[in-house]
Automatic annotation (TrEMBL):
Gene3D superfamilies associated with the record: Cupredoxins - blue copper proteins
Lineage: Eukaryota, Viridiplantae, Streptophyta, Embryophyta, Tracheophyta
InterPro entries on file: Cu-oxidase-like_N, Cu-oxidase_2nd, Cu-oxidase_C, Cu-oxidase_fam, Cupredoxin
Name of the molecule in the record: L-ascorbate oxidase
Pfam families in alphabetical order: Cu-oxidase, Cu-oxidase_2, Cu-oxidase_3
GO molecular function list: copper ion binding; oxidoreductase activity
PROSITE patterns noted in UniProt: PROKAR_LIPOPROTEIN (PS51257)
Amino acid sequence: MIVTRHSKYCQCGRKKMKQTNFPSVFLGILACCALSVIAEDRYQFFTWEITQGTISPLGVPQPGILINGQFPGPTIEAITNDNILVNVINKLDEKFLLTWSGIKQRRTSWQDGVSGTNCAIPPNSNWTYKFQTKDQVGTYTYFPSTKIHKASGGFGGFNIAQRSVIDIPYPAPDAEFTLLIGDWYTTSHKVLRRILDAGRSLPNPNALLINGQKDAAVFTGEAGKTYKFRVSNVGVATSFNLRIQGHSLKLIEVEGAHTLQESYESFDVHVGQSATFLVTLSQPTSDYTIIASSRFTDSIVLTTTATLRYAGSNTITSLSLPSGPEANDVAWSIKQARTIRLNLTANAARPNPQGSFHYGTIPVVRTLQLANSKATINGKLRYAVNGISYLNPKTPLKIADWFNISGVFDLNTIKDVPPSPGTLAKQGTSVVGFTLHDFAEIIFQNNEKFIQSWHMDGSSFYIVGYGDGVWNSDSRKTYNLVDGITRHTIQVYPNSWSAIRVSLDNKGIWNLRSAIWERRYLGQELYLRVWNDVQSVYTESNIPPNALFCGKAKHLH
Ligand SMILES: *[C@@H]1O[C@H](CO)[C@@H](O)[C@H](O)[C@H]1NC(C)=O
Ligand SMILES: *[C@@H]1O[C@H](CO)[C@@H](O)[C@H](O)[C@H]1NC(C)=O
Ligand SMILES: *[C@@H]1O[C@H](CO)[C@@H](O)[C@H](O)[C@H]1NC(C)=O
């Protein structure tokens, strides 16, 4: 069956909603009208003061980035379609920006909070983000997007629950826990930045933390009850494997997609990814250990623990600790990754079945093959994608594009395929130009020995395959074109490729970056410009009235 793609508006009273990409237009219109009549979307306001403070996650005081005095920052608990306003007051001694990882910012890359879309918030000033969690449900995060601030804190959970009229494909859990797990350095982001600016590689992280603590967080539940564990990798470099003594993890969602509900003894989460599990407290009352251990770290395996405590427990279980996979067992991880599949009949944030968009039957209009590499430029360490090491212009790309400011970027800097072997990498501002609604294939080729993680802003993509060695057109024969999962961040194993397909339905300029911060800071990122010539607020919002201006646009305010 060939599925036609359409963009239709349904007009319900005074509200217009966009209905994209679902063949069941009739159902969609019904749902959209019914829902918009029921309630005006809710508003949530936050005022966040960003400060430098002292934290001691490993028992020794070190500088950290706090939000309203907290490390990690506060968790946002939202409902699908909430309007979120966050007034960020920057009390640091340097510029600051937050990005909302996986929040699609429908029609408004203006709120994405990365250098290509926003001028950073200067010290001692504030800026208010305003966006909607449109048609999203699931586990997400936010974090600082510049200057390696993320290595010092400023990150937090961003949970989006379904609206009351929407069914979820699992029994409602008794309560929820948010677990932000990531690697950690005892040195501040400023020291790390100096190392990278000097053209050197970062040392290995010192530890893994769970909610800002090592071996100390406690999650208490009652025997017989079922809990939702929202798990995110908030680190800067390290994949981890998660497991709970005596308990299995039933996967229900990754990054906004409801999965086939498989149970796992242990589960890999790569940098920038989120996964949500149900855990039933089916063991005798006791304390059980939650373990996260680093993956694909040659030299040392970092491990951290937390406690799953049954209410009333005064013992520690005598069960042995679950061991998890060998640190460098790639085959184990790929095998597991292939089991993470979309539940085609389940709905996500909308009532439409997730399988109603038959991604496997849609013709690809363009294939990008993006190969990451390590380079030396001007005697310093840099990283490149298709031979281009990204340089951040002083003017955000989005602002340059909107005001027709020339000389900031062009669409010919990066090519669709990697350069021939031996070509020297150079610096440039890579932007790939797509037409709104293009259906694209992107191959991430990793010919290096480390594990890569790629994140796309603005859209979720379908994961169609993982494979060894160098991708070629025959690799398509191995694709999952039926029930590949959608997510916003994909790992690429050492000397391997990962392939995605994506419908570029969100007009704007969107960051595509390595979630490994050394790599990103030194050039492994680019932007996708998703564009059509029709200027309309139904395809893209106007520049917000409070927009900050900098670089060549500085005179504009
Ligand atoms: C800064 O904060 C004040 C309130 O404290 C608010 O009125 C103003 O709109 C904020 N500025 C921006 C640019 O968001
Ligand atoms: C898929 O979703 C349906 C709801 O449409 C649910 O009843 C079913 O259990 C789910 N299947 C799996 C394998 O997760
Ligand atoms: C930029 O150029 C486009 C097309 O040439 C035009 O439609 C638009 O109005 C221009 N924008 C500004 C702010 O001048």
